[in-house]
Task: structure prediction
Amino acid sequence: MTNSQNLREMALEILLEAEKNGAYPNVLLKQTLDKYLYMEKQERAFLTRLIEGTVERKLTLDYYINNVSKTPVNKMKPVIRCIMRMAAYQIFYMDAVPDSAACNEAVKLAQRKGFQTLKGFVNGVLRNLSRQKDTISLPDETKEPVEALAVQYSVPEWLVEKIIKDYGMKNAKNMFASLYENVGATTIRVNNSKISTEECVKLLKKEGIHVEKAPYVDNALEISGYDSLNFLDSFEKGYFQVQDVSSMLVGLAADPKEGDVCIDVCAAPGGKSIHVADLLNGTGHVEARDLTDYKVGLIEENIYRCGFKNITAKRADACILDELARKTADIVIADLPCSGLGVLKKKSDIKYRMSQSQIEELVELQREILKNAVTYVKAGGTLIYSTCTVAKEENDLQVDWILDNLPLQLVSLKGCVCDKLLENTDREGVLQLLPGREKTDGFFLAKFRKTEESY
Result:
């Protein structure tokens, strides 16, 4: 069994790598869990929660620490800063960990990392934090609404202002609050050409998995209570694919008919492509493209596991026009690189990395890819544009640009997508999902039909 010191040291190394070198903590965590498969379930859960919680609550933790520390968090050495945040997270959000243990283990970590002279500082700040944790007040929402939401939900102020401006205070608060709700479940889509949803539920329960019906999509489930997907026979046999409900809507909106040809221009890790292959029921063909060998490898792993024969993966740069693919596809899926502001629950570090200028750069990249993608669609064929963001520049405003510059017209989503999801849209063919309003990730999709044979 891994002792608590080693678990905290593992967490520290991951947080430090993210802090100093810009690594993605969710990727480092997965690599660690895959490396130490022998860890017991409660150990994996502790490590996961400590890392994910410390990252997602970073701004809130800094606010608390700064209330009791003479040295601001941003002036601390990176190792000490990470140790402080980890300990503060345990003090405020992990009831099962005694405050004294959080403090003591933090001091030991500081010593083991060569900061013997700072152990008194670490101990003093954390003891004060423990004593004062119930009396530290947050900014007043009525007087300072942006700062209050930023601190309460650990969201940068520029992003708070943006979401309030685009969607209003009520939706903004619901969106930010949803980041901390129902975080333990994994959403999956059953591959119905291989197994019925009912039979898959029975198999999962037989494997000791807790299963709930997910909203909006008939073959979507939420599972929890497992150690690793790789240990599940149902996963290895390709009976299901990990995929958020919002992502499943792309395949449903595409509404493929038997024999259709589909090109997915930015496909990794392949969930949407495999969904379309499943819906084609062994007919037609899906070409799942992406930029690098690594991403193509991810797609191929999922194709191999699911066992579909009507789908292949291909390395291709979506920014470079493929002349041979002109007018060859009945369906093109353009799920494009975006700011990711709809998936902060799963990738909470995005909110600290993204900026308004980066969003504007992504808008231009999306347009470059769309100019190529539309040429692959046959006249009368379908193009699905989608993103996992809530930024209007990448969504509604991008649709305006598409309609003005490309031979595409919007097509109704009615009959393809659950009617409940269409209640909050005021534009035919367009769907914006908001976390906290819908029970999904933040997601956007628009369905178009190509109108010109000559383009």
Observations:
- The chain is about 45% helix and 15% strand.
